[in-house]
Amino acid sequence: MKTESQSDKEIKREVDALCLGAKIRKLRQRRSLTLQDVSVRSGLSKSLLSQIENEASVPPIPTLVRIAKALGVGIGNFFRQESSVERISVVRKHARQEAGLGPHHRPERLGYRYIPLAHPLANQHMEPFWVRFESHAESENDYFRHSGEEFIYVQKGRLEFKGGDQTLVIEQGDSLYFESSMPHRVRNLGPTPAAVLAVIYTPDG
C-alpha cells in the first residue's frame, strides 16, 4: 500500500486550515440553497460540490469563481475572517493562506497551489493570487471557463497556455490577459515549479 508522503501531509494540513468546504456550506445554507440549486447555478455536479463541502476535494480557482457566483459573493469571502469589514487589505507574508491539492487531486494531474493575496476584503471584483505550478509530465489539465477576465504575470518558469484555438508559451517576465469565459488551461513545461501572479476579475451579474 502506498503511504502518504510528508509533502502530501503538509498540503493536507494547509488545506484543512483554510476550511474552504465549511465556508462554502455555511454561505449556501445562509442563502437557503440546496446542493442542487448551486449545481444548477454553477454548472458543477452535486457530487463535486458535496466533495468540496466535505473537504474531500480542493476546488481550483476557476471552480471557486463559479461557486462564488452561484452564491452571489466574491471569492474573497472564502478566505476572509468572518467579522471582516475591511476596505483596505494588507496581507503580510507570514499571514498568507495556501490552498494545495486535496487527497483526491493528484499533483501530476491538476498540478498547482494558490495563495490569495487580498483575502481580508469581502466583495472586491478583482482577486489576486500567487500560483505555483508543479512540474509534471503527465498533466493534461482540465479546461476551465468562468465569467470575467484574467491577468497572468510569469515570475518564474515556462508555461503553456491554451485558450480558444491558440496555444502560447509564456516565460519569465511575460504577461498574458484574456477573457476567462473561453475554455482555457495552463500547464508547466519546465522540470521545476513555475510561479505566477494571477489576477481574476469577476463582474457583477
Description:
With 205 residues, the chain is of the alpha+beta class. The protein has a single domain, classed as Jelly Rolls. It contains five helices and eight strands, in the order αααααββββββββ. It has a five-stranded antiparallel β-sheet, with no helix packed on it. A hairpin with a 2-residue loop joins β4 (158-163) and β5 (166-171). α3 (35-42) packs across α5. The model is unreliable at 100-109 (pLDDT under 50).
| Tally of individual helices | 5
Which outline best applies?
Answer: globular
Mean pLDDT: 78
Strand content: 15-25%
Compact description:
This protein has helices at about 5-20, 20-30, 35-40, 45-55, 60-70, and strands at about 110-115, 125-135, 150-155, 160-165, 165-170, 175-180, 185-190, 195-200. It is of the alpha+beta class and about 200 residues long.
